[in-house]
């Protein structure tokens, strides 16, 4: 019988600091410690009945733009399109992303929202509606400080 | 207390193994892959997920969801918590899936969430391959 699948993380938790380069690597003194299994098991759900991985609502934190970061996650609503594909909708700003899958729709939303933020930030004069959207977007997105 | 900032993901990779140097905390990612070959399905796989995060500080609940993209079906999910001390330095996240059953050939997606916010995804293609031809001893001249 096959063993049940498990998920493991380091005993200290899933997060660790980035590596550090020692410019003058000194030889490591003393005897090296014995090998040990330094991992612990974390719950891994696979027994749930097969269900859709598309949530009805989701928080968006996947902005991919080198000059922008998120102040807070944006609440989105998802829609499955009958003809195929998924939409993720930001109702507050009336913007959306679309893709073949949920992940692709989130990528599309990331591009859309980054372009919109930059366009509105650079605009000299805006209509009242666009000013309102810029204000709403600024609650979620800001320019990365160098 | 303030809500922890939304992390930016600098990289997310799948690999066979992550070796962490005890002295320097440097990670060696062994066998980075994006496709998985098996002769028969369901196939058992050991998969390590690595992510490098920036702009993160505080206590986070991380979630990795494994999704079959053919019908967007959730086939596995792991949740765990971790503390990131300072946003001034990037942090690494590592989770190992041992004996994970890949049900059938097709595309799968590993989605990363922090405090219920979707951050990023990485895809893996599972392929069925034929049985390799049996090795035969060369004929003696």
SSE arrangement:
The complex is a heterodimer of chains A (146) and B (141).
Chain A: E1 6-10, E2 15-17, E3 39-42, E4 44-45, E5 51-52, E6 57-60, E7 68-70, E8 74-80, E9 86-90, E10 95-99, H1 102-122, H2 128-138, E11 141-143
Antiparallel strand pairs in A: 1-3, 6-8, 7-11, 8-9, 9-10
Helix pairs in contact in A: 1-2
Chain B: E1 8-20, E2 27-33, E3 35-38, E4 43-54, E5 58-68, E6 73-84, E7 91-102, E8 106-114, E9 117-128
Word description of this protein:
The complex is a heterodimer of chains A (146) and B (141). By secondary structure, chain A is α+β, with helices and mostly antiparallel strands. Chain A is 22% helix and 29% strand. Chain A is built from two helices and eleven strands. In chain A, the strands form three sheets. In chain A, strands 6-8-9-10 form a four-stranded antiparallel sheet. Chain A has a two-stranded antiparallel sheet with strand order 1-3. A two-stranded antiparallel ribbon of chain A has the order 7-11. In chain A, helix 1 (102-122) packs across helix 2. Chain B is an all-beta fold and 141 residues long. Chain B is built from no helices and nine strands. Chain B has a five-stranded mixed sheet with strand order 3-9-8-5-6, with no helix packed on it. The model of chain B has no long low-confidence stretch (mean pLDDT 91). At the A-B interface, strand 1, strand 2, strand 4, strand 5 and strand 6 of A face strand 1, strand 4, strand 5, strand 6 and strand 7 of B. Strand 4 of chain A pairs antiparallel with strand 6 of chain B.
